[in-house]
Amino acid sequence: MANDTNKLRFQRTVPVVAIRDSVVFPHTDSILSFGRAKSIDAVNAAFQDDKIIAIFNQKDPNVTDPTPEDLYEIGTIATVTQMMSTDDEIHAMIKGQARVRLDEVLAEEPYFIAKVSELSETDIKTDEVTALSNQLYDIFKRAVNLGKGVEITTVMKILSGNIEPIELVDSVSSLLDVKSAEKQKILEILSVKDRFKRVIELMGHEVNVLDLEKTISMKTQKKLEDQMKKAMLREKKRVIEEELEGGDEDSDLSELKEYKKKIKAAKMPKETESKALKELKRLEQMSANNPESGYVRNYLDWLVEMPWSNSSPNNVSVKKAGKILDEEHFAIDKTKERILEYLSVMKMKEKAKKAEDSQPTILCFVGPPGVGKTSIGKSIAKALGRKFVRVSLGGIRDEAEIRGHRRTYVGAMPGRIIQGMKNAGTNNPVFMLDEIDKLGMDYRGDPSSALLEILDPEQNKEFSDHYLEVPFDLSKVIFIATGNVTDTIPGPLLDRMEVIRFAGYTTDEKFEIGDKFLWPKVLKLHGIDDRKIKIEKRALKEIIESYTREAGVRNLERNLATICRKVAREIAEKGKYPKVITLKDVVKFLGPRKFSSQIAEKKDDVGIVTGLSVTTFGGEILFIEVSLMPGTGKLILTGQLGSVMKESVKAAYTWTRSHWRQLGLPENFARDMDIHVHVPEGAIPKDGPSAGVSMTTALVSALTHIPVRKDVAMTGEITLRGRVLEIGGLKEKVIAAHRAGIKTIIAPKDNEKDMVDVPQSVKDDVKFYFVDHYEEIPPIALKGWKSIKQKETVTPTVATV
Ligand code: ADP
């Protein structure tokens, strides 16, 4: 509101015009258009008279026929310098002169006539005003530079520097980008200094906004330019490529069509198909020279070649399966029986159409190499009429080998499971996961967790491979895992599987397998089956006993293959077909014997005992040696013994020391000697508690100087009090001992139950003793041992080397 202290300069009576939404400032020129009859009349009257008119802003722009109360009290007196009328409007050039107050309205019709009085302004020419004026000048200039939309003549007038501060402030006020109410307020500030301050403030704000707009617009502009540039370059590239490729377009098109056909033919799940089509679209949009197109093609090839819906027919005939298993495998009757049970359950489930748990238990074949794990797997596939695939997991440390690499990797490929499925070509093969006991694990993720998912019927319906990106259904697959031992199979995996053990073959079984299966097989493999060549019994036995030492028959097969190769060469060179392979031929073709009987050459010796163990190669015999020497009561252990085995030695030692009286030894027999326990074949780490009784026997023999019978082998854990505890793998150990020529086996009483698994031929050859307590062992194992409670005291003899 106007400051009442300001004195009035003069009063005059003039036509008044009301305007909406704008303010006319003194010292400014503006063109206004008038449409309302009252306004047109007022402007006309003024123009025809002395051209003076007072202009007042309406408080509410929406009022069409304002009364004097609707006008602001302060307005501008102005001159109408020019006028032009169109149909129902007039346009007038108005030059603002001074601020006036509306004192009294004398007439309202035909237009307002009122008494107005000019308001005098304060602080017009002070130093502060000069300084403020410079400031506003700079700010305004900056606004114009930043793109403030002002007519050029106005800019030139303002920036010419030839205008008074009071003109500057009013001119800039009229150009402010603010609402008219705000402008009205500025109009009403009579102190020039204060008006400057307010205008500077508002203009400053405007400059900031303009500045911001400019940065934003520069950024968008740049982005737009970049995009346009790229689009142009892309287009250019496309044209160039089209020019270069010329006629290749047809072949591209046919390739795309071919893919489309293949995608349809693959009968993928819906989502997978749409993924494939999406990739195809990508390929379509790529130029053939784009290196990425190769990756997309590769990916599409994988997608279309996966057996999404290709299955082998599901016809389980247990009878047929039994026949196949028998035809292809000798012995291992228990294993075959178990497999037939397994197939029967599968058939029953299928009959019951229990889709939700139609996936059978996962079998895990455990046993040394060459015992027929793989070949049983193949027979199962054959019996079921399904495909057979095999993937080795040995040494896999990286989860990506199982689950694949993401497509962003260079040279990415699906993992071994998906590769196996593609090789199978059907979605329900028998899938063998070999060497599951040799899975590794490191920082690249735990492959066993991926396997867990694969073997879990809940999860494997949607197995996700990183490369494939789409889920693949593994629920129809029959997985069979294989391994040499169970100790190194990760617990959760082992939990999920049913272990079937393959213990290894006796010499007789090997003979039968060699004779009936391996020999005909290798002959056929070498293309010499048309004329039957026989192998002498003695010759085959010699190969088994003197050229191989194994639980399985792999080396036997290899040796037979070697003979076949040599025979083939002789046939080729000399055209001579041998009728039969004799013992002499074996030496000729295979060279001198590789192994001799481990036992035969030994003699009954002091301090050396035959123990039994199970390794990844199956059951084995091992020798435990004890030597005594002058010393200070030390116990020396060598031969790569594991911690459990070391403890076993200590327990054995304690038992012997605490039974010095029964053993007929002096009380402090250990004081002046060192005892060295050694288990030869130091390169192979050995562990487990089952050597306890053999250790004790070796000690007792060494201390009492009574030799151990060479054809006795023993196994069993020993407690400090001499109890003999149950051990694992009896069958494997017994078969190995039998193979090695052992005639007597001492084992824990609790293991007697395992004898059902031992082949009859072994039972017939070997004498078994099952013991509860260690005291029962020396009479069996030590040659000439009368009674453990000996009368005379023996002085341990210390070896002098
Ligand atoms: P693994 O998988 O246990 O290492 P394989 O299945 O590869 O052993 O067997 C090695 C060879 O021995 C194969 O040629 C297999 O046919 C043969 N074989 C193993 N066990 C028997 C058996 N009981 N009867 C006939 N052949 C056998």
What does this structure look like?
The chain has 26 helices and 24 strands. Strand 21 and strand 22 form a beta hairpin. It is 43% helix and 18% strand. Helix 21 (643-658) packs across helix 23 (692-704). The chain is an alpha/beta fold and 801 residues long. The radius of gyration is 53 Å and the shape is elongated. It starts with 7 loop residues before the first strand and ends in a 20-residue tail after the last helix. The chain binds adenosine-5'-diphosphate (ADP). Adenosine-5'-diphosphate is lined by residues 329-332, 369-375, 513, 517, 552-554, 557.
Short description:
This protein has 801 residues and is an alpha/beta fold. The longest helix has 54 residues, at 192-245. Mean pLDDT is 86; it is low at 1-8.
For the structure shown, list the relevant keywords.
801 residues, 7-stranded mixed sheet, 5-stranded mixed barrel, 43% helix, disordered N terminus, binds adenosine-5'-diphosphate
